[in-house]
Amino acid sequence: MKILPSDQFVHRLARLIFKKEKAHPRGDLNIVFVKNPQIKKINKRFFKKDKTTDVIAFPYSPLSDTIPEATFGDIFISVPTARMNSRRLKEPLKKELARLVVHGILHLLGHKDDNKRRRTLMWRRQEEIVNSVFQSQK
After folding, report:
1. For range 59-83, the mean pLDDT
2. N or C: which terminus of the chain carries fewer CB neighbours within 10 A?
3. CB–CB of 137/89 below 8 Å?
4. How far apart are CA 98 and CA 122, in angstroms?
5. Which residues have a Cβ under 8 Å from the Cβ of 123 and sit 6 or more positions away?
6. What is the Cα–Cα distance from 34 to 9, expressed in whole angstroms?
7. Domain assignments of the chain as residue spans, ordered by start
8. pLDDT averaged over the chain?
């Protein structure tokens, strides 16, 4: 049983997001699907939160001395947490994983969800993109 979306689907999704956001990022986008212990470790190390989460995004500045210019950003997605979310939302796992890819890329492009207003705006945009992808697949 295949759980993760295909590389081709993820590439098409990323291109669609960049197009809809009128963004032209340079460099590689790394999307890593992990289990809960890995994302919890990342969350604790970089955000001092000793708990699991669904997605973490790390944007890289092209001016950084430690990151190769060829890297736009990294996104880590917890598959078990995505599976729990999909069951709670009564939606296919593929749609929830796509939602988390969209969420991560929007963060890399500068969207924030650190307060209620920003969260509402970001989530609205996220859902517009996710729904456009899954409407076209029907």
Report:
1. 79
2. N
3. no
4. 15
5. 113
6. 18
7. 25-136
8. 90
Right CATH for 25-136 from 3.40.390.30, 3.40.50.150, 1.10.287.70, 3.40.50.2300: 3.40.390.30
Pairing of strands 71-78, 28-34: parallel
Which DSSP category does 56 fall into?
A: E
- This prediction's pTM: 0.89
The string of pLDDT tens digits covering residues 81-119 is 999 999 999 999 999 999 999 999 999 999 999 999 999
User: What SS3 class is residue 49?
Assistant: coil
Neighbours of 98 (CB within 10 A): 21
- Residue type for 13, please? L
C-alpha angle 4/60/102, rounded to 5°?
A: 35
In order of 44, 48, 128, the CA distances from 10 in angstroms are 27, 29, 17
